[in-house]
Amino acid sequence: MAAADVAFFPIRHHSPACAWALSQALAALRPRQVLVEAPCDFLPLVVHLTDPETKPPIALLSLPADKAAPEDQFTAVYPFCAHSPEFVALRWARGNDARIELIDLPARHKMMRRRMPERHGAPAPLIAEWRLDHNAYVTELCARRGVRDALALWDALFESQAGTADWRGFFKAVGLYCGHMRAVTPAADMAADGTQAREAHMAARLARARAEPGPVAVITGGFHTPALMEEAAWPAPDTASPPANAYLIRYGFQQLDHHGGYGAGLPHPAFYQRLWQSLHHRAAAPSDLAADVLTDFADWLRREKPSLALPTPTLSAAVIATGRLAALRRLPAAGRSEIIDAVRSCGVKDAIELGTSPLLEALQIFLVGEMIGGIPHGAAQPPLVAHVRARLKALRFNLEDGAPRHRDLDVLRRPAHAQASRLLFTLELAGAEFARRIAGPDPYTGWRGDALFETWTYAWSPMVEARLIARAADGASLEDVALATLAARHRALADSGRSRSASASVALLVTAARTGIEAAIDLAAGWCADAIADDSQAASIIGAIAVTAGLTRPGPGAPEFAPRFQPLRSAAIRRLLLLFPDIADTREDQLPDLIRALAALGGLLASGDDALERAAFAPVLQAALDRTAPPVLHGALLAFAGLLGTLPEADVAARIAALLAGTYVTAGDAAAVLTGCLAVAPRLILRSPAILEAADGFLARADHEGFVAALPELRLAFSQLNPTEIDQIAAWAAARHGLDIAQITTSGIPAREMTENLGLSARLAGVWREDGLAAWLEVA
Questions:
Q1: Contact at 8 Å (CB) between 675 and 649?
Q2: In the chain, which end has fewer C-beta atoms inside a 10 angstrom radius, N or C?
Q3: Which phi and psi angles does 186 have, rounded to 5°?
Q4: Which pLDDT band, with edges at 50, 70 and 90, does 153 fall under?
Q5: Is residue 659 assigned to a domain?
Q6: What is the DSSP code string of 70-115?
Q7: Whole-angstrom distance, CA of residue 750 vs CA of residue 346
Q8: Measured between alpha carbons, how far is 265 from 15 in angstroms, rounded to an integer?
Q9: Could you tell me which of 186, 182, 219 has the C-alpha nearest to residue 33?
């Protein structure tokens, strides 16, 4: 496809067939200039991209510059694999001393942004081929050819021709196919999404190349080739653009998978890598590729998913099926679609739910692959990435591929494991999304002694690398990034008016303690001290007391720093004692948090926390009880007085019983007293027949309206009890009213009645939510 001294090569990104035909064409034509559709401001990185040490898949990454405008706050990526035609062209050009030119608009140009999908924080790809897969022309061709979708159609028309010696005929067919795609696309759409602006820029670069001596090869997506060949007169765009701020990064097959959300290329990149390798080994498309892939898949199943292993007869049947499917579809050899269909028909015996099955899901994973590329020494990368990789490898984390793995860390007994935990928490703070903790000891539960191990799941991926690069502006070390992140979180608290919240500040302290970074701990401790001194919310102060109880005990976070947290805890306790007499003035919307906080404080007292001096709390608690408090808080304070020993349990029970007997005017208020009591000391009702009798009498006296009014609070009150405790109360109530509890519990509830009750419960919950009472459905 030549015009004067220019040869045009319409390609599909990451197509082995296009890459192979292009390699043959370049070897035959030997152009002196190679023009490739890629952002022009990535040109300085081509030397690293084409380095012999570079191992695809890799990508060129563009980050926002420091102090970038809001519209420029995005991350963009341009990926390559070994069978990307652009990569093949660039490597050929370097090996044959041809001039390389990247001819697309700059990566951060406003017209490039128009074609980027929302990626929820992940880098957006700079290349997309959705126009090749979604139009009336493709739909009609799929129907005529009898294939399921546009990707299978491409395979049948072009990937099946991989290895052909007739590269001219191949590119003529690709050009015709893509030309039809363009013919059914409205010009207005191409103007709106930046296509015309990009093509105008490519045409200008091509015109400049024509003025230089020597033949020119132009490698672009097939959709753009007709415009360049016809020299379409689009208005030249303004090329002003923010700087690329670009790096070469490792990329992975999982990110390249078309079915995984990547908008270019083909699905199942590991399969096409196999096809590409076979072409190089045999210089032609192998007829036994499908058999090799299926055999390797069977071996992989035996290793990775033995429960799904294919019996030999099934494997043999699948291999035979691929050949017969290829013949039926008039293909020279079986490809990806034939492999999938053969496994589906021969290996899946049960009904396929929603279009998939465990075996097909395993095949999907196998065909996508887990390969991650490598970059050469000296490539432009911030030191932070190498710093993190070296530390992870030293702690025996596997970074060789993108497969998710589990790691158990004995953080309380093995220093190296505690060090690994700190590093993982630091990476979590930095937003690398490398690992996620599933279970383990926690300062919020006081570093429970029975939880010795942390369990993490982790995977190194190109996105981890990209996120670290994005944070490189905050420093060359992970510690610098952690400090910058903590400072940003504290600024966010200030912006939201919560920088003086003790509970919010102590959460930052926990985050810092888990990293084990001394400077971070000192920084967060200072913020926490300031917040404790200024916070006027008792619930928030109690939260700080509870969390610092965990931090002051030996644990995996930073045991050597535990003494530093004791002054904070003492300051929080002093602050709570100062606030406690006025606790009755708490606003209604703050009561649920306060009740939960009192329950937590009661738990600390019950555990024998030495820092909480009962004698110091007695007078301030009595002062609070002497004030008029909301019913739910009054019940909670009475229960807390029983836990503290300020009131004997018998006196607490007597007061609760008296309140239920009629002190409050409304039934809802009376029941709220029971809610507060059981929220702080749920076991109290089991030890107190007086409270049980008072609650029973309260229910007996309530009329229908009173019961309905009290029902939400009663629901909350008894939700504090576990099933065994509820059974004990039921047995007491049955005996009190002359019922046989054994008969009730063994006869069961008829299925119809159970269904009706569940339906009624769901309807009531819906009504409460509509009335803004969703909080009543929560356990206090």
A1: no
A2: N
A3: -60, 140
A4: very high
A5: no
A6: GGG---EEEEE-TT-HHHHHHHHHHHTTPEEEEEEPPTT-HHHHTT
A7: 45
A8: 7
A9: 219
Question: Above 60 in pLDDT, residue 272?
Answer: yes
112, 101, 110: which is closest to 78 by C-alpha? 112
Alpha-carbon distances of 59 from 12, 87, 246, 463, rounded to whole Å:
17, 11, 10, 11
Are 411 and 265 part of one and the same domain?
A: no
DSSP string covering 488-555: HHHHHHHHTT-TT-HHHHHHHHHHHHHHT-HHHHHHHHHHHHHHHHH---HHHHHHHHHHHHHHTS--
**Ordered DSSP codes for 549-596:** HHHTS--SS-GGGHHHHHHHHHHHHHHHHHHGGGGGG--GGGHHHHHH
| pLDDT exceeds 90 at position 465 | no
Tokens of 128: 């997309």
Question: Domain for residue 700, yes or no?
Answer: no
Which of 221, 251, 270 terminates a domain? The answer is 270
What DSSP character marks residue 457? Answer: E
Alpha helices in 583-663 (DSSP H): 591-606, 614-625, 631-644, 649-658
**3-class secondary structure, 440:** coil
User: Is 439 strand, coil or helix?
Assistant: strand
Tokens representing 543? Answer: 């939260």
| Banded pLDDT at 305 (limits 50, 70, 90) | very high
pLDDT digits (tens, 9 = 90+) for 481-506: 899 899 989 988 888 888 889 999 99
Tens-place pLDDT, residues 210-243: 988 889 999 999 999 999 998 766 777 777 777 7
Closest CA to 275 of 299, 258, 292: 292
Q: How many domains does the chain have?
A: 3
The C-alpha angle with vertex 674 and arms to 679 and 589, in degrees rounded to 5, equals: 65
437 found inside a domain: yes
CA nearest 384: which of 460, 470, 462? 470
Distance in angstroms (rounded) separating the CA atoms of residues 213 and 5: 9
Contacts of 321 by beta carbon, 8 Å cutoff, 6+ apart: 338, 341, 342, 345, 346
| 266 and 408 both lie in a single domain | no
User: What does the buried/exposed string (b/e) look like for 159-175 if buried means 16 or more CB atoms within 10 Å of the residue's CB?
Assistant: bbbbbbeebeebbeebb
Do 264 and 411 lie in a common domain?
A: no
Question: Bridge partners of 55?
Answer: 374
Contact 157, 330 (CB under 8 A): no
Terminal Cα distance for the chain, rounded = 74
Alpha-carbon distances, residue 649 vs 266, 643, 681, 739 (angstroms): 72, 8, 11, 29
Burial 653-687 (b: 16+ CB within 10 A, else e): bbbbbebbeeebeebbbbbbbbbbbbbbbbebbee
Q: Helices in 659-722 by DSSP H: which ranges?
A: 667-680, 689-701, 704-718
Q: Which domain holds residue 112?
A: 2-270
CB 18 within 8 A of CB 174: yes
In a domain, 699, yes or no: no
- Rg of the chain over Cα atoms, rounded to whole angstroms, equals 34
> Dihedrals φ, ψ of 76, to 5°?
-125, 150
Q: How far apart are CA 69 and CA 188, in angstroms?
A: 28
The secondary element (H helix, E strand) that includes residue 60 is strand 58-62
Confidence of residue 352 (pLDDT cuts 50, 70, 90): low
Q: How many other C-beta atoms can be found within 10 angstroms of the C-beta atom of residue 403?
A: 14
Q: Sheet containing 99-104: give its strands across.
A: 2-3, 6-11, 216-221, 33-39, 99-104
- Cβ within 8 Å of residue 692, ≥6 positions away: 685, 729, 732, 733
